[in-house]
Every structure is written in C-alpha cells, then in structure tokens.
Amino acid sequence: MDGPCKVKEESKPYEYKVEIKCKDGYGAHWAGEWKDEYWDGPCKIKRDVKFDEYKEEVKCRRDD
C-alpha cells in the first residue's frame, strides 16, 4: 500500500507494467479518463486511465 492507493508493478526483460488503484479516486495524481497509445523509440506505451485507476504498459522491441 502506498498512501491511499494500491500500486502493483511488474517488470520483465523488455516489458514493464504498473497499475495504481485509488479507492473512490482519493489520492489519485491524475484527473479525468482517457486511453493513450504511442511509440517512444523502440518501446510501445499504452495507458488506460479512469477516475480511480491508472494502468500503463511498456513493451520494447529487441534488436537482435
């Protein structure tokens, strides 16, 4: 538990996920609801944001 919000992080090679849930939106550092998907260099970033929940997923390509 991190303050009023529950934080879950998962990290693997070339992947990273974070999920933050704030009961009734209390303690959330974001406002509104939106979805976002874009590339940052070799990494694809997806965000799904709601009033009481923030999810971010990062997947990076490997250049072998």
Mean pLDDT: 88
Spatial strand order of the main sheet: 1-2-5-4-3
Q: What does the largest sheet look like? A: 5 strands, antiparallel
Beta-strand fraction estimate: over 45%
Q: What helical percentage do the residues reach? A: under 10%
The value of Rg in angstroms is: 13 Å
pLDDT < 50 stretches: none
Shape: elongated
Number of domains: 1
Structural classification:
mainly beta
- The strand count comes to 5
SSE order, one letter for each helix or strand: EEEEE
Distance from first to last alpha carbon: 38 Å
Counting DSSP H or I runs of 4 or more residues, the number of helices is: 0
Question: Any overview of this molecule?
Answer:
The chain is mainly β and 64 residues long. It has one domain (5-60). The chain is 0% helix and 61% strand. It has no helices and five strands. Strands 1-2-5-4-3 form a five-stranded antiparallel beta sheet, with no helix packed on it. The model has no long low-confidence stretch (mean pLDDT 88).
